[in-house]
Design a protein that fits this description.
With about 400 residues, the chain is an alpha/beta fold. The chain has 2 domains: about 1-245, 3-Layer(aba) Sandwich (Rossmann fold), CATH 3.40.50.970; about 255-385, Rossmann fold, CATH 3.40.50. It is about 40% helix and about 20% strand. The chain has 13 helices and 15 strands. It has a 7-stranded mixed β-sheet, with helices on both faces. Strands 9-11-10-13-14-15 form a 6-stranded mixed β-sheet, with helices on both faces. It is globular, with a radius of gyration of 21 Å. It starts with a strand and ends in a 5-residue tail after the last strand.
Amino acid sequence: MTTRVGVEVSIAIADAVKLSNADVVAAYPITPQTHIVEHLAELVANGELDAEYIPVESEHSAMSACVGAAAAGARTFTATAGQGLELMHEVLYIPSAMQLPMVMAVANRALSSPLSVWGDHSDLVAVRDTGWIQIVVENGQQAVDNVICGFRIAEDKRVLLPVMVHLDGFYLTHVIEPITFPEQIDVDKFLPPNSYPFPLNPDKPVAMGDFGPPFIYTEAKWMQEVNLRASRKVILECWNKFGKAFGRQYLPVEKYHSDGASVLLLTMGCFSETAMVAIDELKAKGNDIGQIRLRLWRPFPFEELRQAVKDADVLIVLDRAISFGGPGGVVASEVKAALYEQDKKPKVVSFVAGLGGRDITVSGFKEIIQRGIEIARTGSENEYEIYGVRE
């Protein structure tokens, strides 16, 4: 049995945390994440969620509290956005390095300055190298599903890593969508109780996060890298089992009319659904065009990406964040690196668009695609192009 209702996506995420039987929630409110943790506070206060809600004075403190809770063996959740994610940036490296499982919903938001509460992927790419598993969703249903999957992945004893679930601020957080909620009994079957193998115990005190001198630091970081890359297998297992249990399947790279297409558009996040409309309309007019979407940002899906683009001539990559003084788009640079040693690879064209919450319409995606094809054919003196800049 499932229940399908119209609900604000932020509220749905909180309900997914409730379905997951979280033990501890520590969070600080920041737009556009606030509704998630407000609703969780209500669920705890009303007795609907048997959890400890820790009100803190900052996002730095929120992540610090989550570190302690996860180390004690509690199923732990938090949420943040933009500048809040940056304020907790210092602490993000700790749970990934110390193998502390937790889930964090990130309502992606542009970074200052100028101040913006609107969504882009500046915060998403800024935390790329903190060692977390990063999953990107396109709609509320995917957010609910991947919060539940996030706990299972994080707590798997072969992984024991923190998981970020990225969703676009305002474009998703504050909209009402039809969402299918699984029954509690089915979630309980899919998501076993957390049994963290190294919980803190006052009767058996241990030291954690000790000083790492040069003779051991490199080895510690390498083992962290090995662990994050190895998590890919568990992520795929989890998504496969989720698909069998609930009928919705997720993949590291998801395709849309891409098989055999000579021109591909690569997107990430909720703008992907707008791009699908543009793809449909262009295909209806006889254009040889398809789309691929990145679902898994870390660990990066190298092989899946290579397979998805192996027959294409042109790959247009849309970034919603800019790497100042660098190659333009962070996603585009990752894609180029992934394809560098391939004998046959498409011409990669990088576009940066949608910064600070600026919309990209269906016609805008068509313009980006047509301009990308033109650049691939004639070349360009620029490393990348920013779409929609007012001269």
